[in-house]
Amino acid sequence: MTVQNVESMPGPAPAPAIELVNAARWYGNVVAVNDVSFALGPGVTGLLGPNGAGKTTLLHMLAGFLAPSAGTVHVLGRSPHRDPSVYRQIGLVPEREAVYPFLTGFEYVRFNARLQGMADADAASRRAISLVGLDDAAHRAIGTYSKGMRQRAKVAGALVHDPQVLLLDEPFNGMDPRQRLAMMDLLGQMAEAGRTILFSSHILEEVERIGTEILVMVSGRLAASGDFRAIRALMTDRPHTIKIRSSDDRRLATALMADPAVFAVELKDGSLAVQTAHLSTFRRLIAGASRAAGVRLVEVVSADESLESVFDYLVRR
Amino acid sequence: MNSVAAVRDIAGVTLRQLLGRRRTVLLVLLSVVPILLAAAFRAAGETDIERFTRIVFDGLYVAILLPLVAVLFGTGAFGAEIEDGTIVYLLAKPIPRAAVVIAKALSAAGVAIALTVASAGLSGVIELLPAGSDGQAATFGYITAMAVGSVCYATLFLALSLFTRRALVIGIGYMLVWEGGLSSLLPGIANLSIRQYSLGVADAFIQLHQDPARLTPSTAMTLAVILVVVAMVVASWRLMRFELPGSSD
Q1: Chain B residues in contact with A78 (beta carbon < 8 A)
Q2: Chain B residues closer than 8 Å to A87 by CB
Q3: B-contacting residues of A 122-151, CB under 8 Å?
Q4: Which of A204, A312, B7, B127 has the most CB atoms in a 10 Å sphere around its CB?
């Protein structure tokens, strides 16, 4: 898998599966995607960003549903806009939930397979249904599916023709943890088989498991790209704020302040706000400290784990 | 993919979509109203074909039921999918856009034809067929008018639904203001009125009404064909350039 700045790509390299060069898209005065350049080869890449960052607009440009207002977008060496034939090699899982509710899961996947012109659409559909683990519900109407099952049906419909490039917009929405793991394994296997997979998410932890490479979008711009761990490391020295409610906030504050992992403690609005650099260390600390102080914990929540705050931090750096 | 197979598959899904909607049930109920009226005419012993066709066929079928049914199905064929986002599943396929448009138009027009022709046919059987050869001719004439009108309205407003989300409102405005109001005041408008195309086609079987605004059957049919072809070409062109509406992202 490669994520490269286009400017720094070596000369005679194989053509990337996905390539954007200074791509931008605006609606009137609103800039949704601004001067984005990157190239992707086989592998799984996470497209991260808070809501409103431009992820869906970027995926829609890659899927040929939006023309770039400036710059170029190429998938497998071709512009996907106004070229339906490119969809033989692209699979797309859109963000919106709607799937024909009156079709069964199998009928929906077969509909996709048939429109892809597959010779044995039934066999391909059964295979795709099995891959996403929907065998038991394959002959139930999609209208009766849970959100997670609908997502899996959408994924099955997108990969039924074994596309070279798979674009997934928030594919894990609505899936339970077990389904997420299974889906991540599946995407990993497809990547190992040489497919180029780009999926969007606003949840950092989803990317951690699956994509070693990430693209981070903030306010329409590419804020960071590269190895996930390297970018995650950039965030580790960022102070995290934890909000705690307990049976005795004051006593707990005293106990926590003694630990070097805690930067600052503040009592406000009937709860305790604690700043720490190391979340995992703090999670261990809080349990022991509350027990030792004889304080009962009511609530422990991260006050700023939203991607918005993480990305704000990245951008400020 | 074989385009014919694509048309068949998309039309199948579209038909299920259109028939599964609540408004279809309402339209079916509405289409029963003129049948009941025909039965009332029959029960009252009414034998004046000219009067019956003017009130029931011209006044109810051609002026109200036909455009309402065909505009609703025409705008709904793409409109619902654009609204809920399922249009993506059609657009992300390696099939000619014209095949998608043909499939949608066949479905919308097909359902509209089935409903209007069945209703008009039943009304004709109840009141007109017993009236002899004129009654038969009138029945066949209006059945054909329903079919031609259904195709015209459905394709025109199917194409329009790819340009605006207000296609249904425009369609009803067209039906009430343009065809209902202006076309009776300004005879020249008949050339741009699907209602007049339908009535003109019906006249090919029997001419019951002397109306200077009425188009000749050949002119009506020619204009109807031109309208359908232009609407299909424009819809295909538009679908090729169709961009997904802005997302929450």
Answers
A1: none
A2: 92-94
A3: none
A4: B127
Tell me, rounded to whole angstroms, the distance of Cα B157 from its chain centroid.
9
Burial code (b: 16+ CB inside 10 Å, e: under 16) for B195-217 equals: bbbbbbbbbbbbebeeeebbbeb
Rg of chain A (C-alpha set) = 23
What CATH fold (topology level) applies to the domain A3-232? Answer: Rossmann fold (3.40.50)
Q: Residue ranges per domain, chain B? A: 3-240
Q: How far is CA B47 from CA A105, B40, B118, B132, B137, in A?
A: 56, 12, 22, 11, 15
The string of DSSP letters for A160-226 reads TT--SEEEEESTTTT--HHHHHHHHHHHHHHHHTT-EEEEEES-HHHHHHH-SEEEEEETTEEEEEE
Angle at B18 between CA B12 and CA B19, to 5 degrees: 90
Residue with tokens 């798979």: A166
Which of A115, A154, A200, A219 best tests the B interface by mutation, with the highest count of B CBs <10 A?
A115
What integer is the mean pLDDT of B49-73? 93
Q: Which residues contact B203 (CB under 8 A, 6 or more apart)?
A: B141, B214, B216, B217, B220
- Under DSSP, is residue A133 helix (H, G, I), strand (E, B) or coil? coil
Query: Which helix (H) or strand (E) is B143 found in, with range?
Result: helix B133-161
Q: Is the pLDDT of residue A182 over 50?
A: yes
Question: Do A92 and B92 count as a contact with CB atoms less than 8 A apart?
Answer: yes
- Please name the amino acid found at residue A250: R
Taking Cα atoms as reference points, which of A65, A23, A40, A15 lies closest to residue A165? A40
Average model confidence (pLDDT) across chain A: 85
Higher pLDDT, B234 or A245: B234
Task: For residue B192, give both structure tokens.
Answer: 């741009």
CB-nearest to B96 from A56, A66, A84 is A84
B156, B231 in Cβ contact below 8 A?
yes
Domain range A237-316, CATH class: alpha beta
Domain with CATH 3.30.70.100 in chain A: 237-316
Q: How far is Cα A33 from Cα A56, in angstroms, rounded to an integer?
A: 10
Neighbours of A285 (CB within 10 A): 19
Beta-carbon neighbour count of residue B192 at 10 Å?
15
Choose among B113, B89, B91, B219: nearest CA to B162.
B91
Contacts with B6 (C-beta within 8 Å, 6 or more apart), sequence order: A114, A115, B93, B95, B99, B100, B103
Residues of chain A with CATH 3.40.50.300: 3-232
- pTM attached to this predicted model: 0.82
**Nearest 5°: CA angle at B191, between B189 and B195?**
85
Report ipTM for this prediction.
0.89
- Confidence class of residue A228 from pLDDT cuts 50, 70 and 90? confident
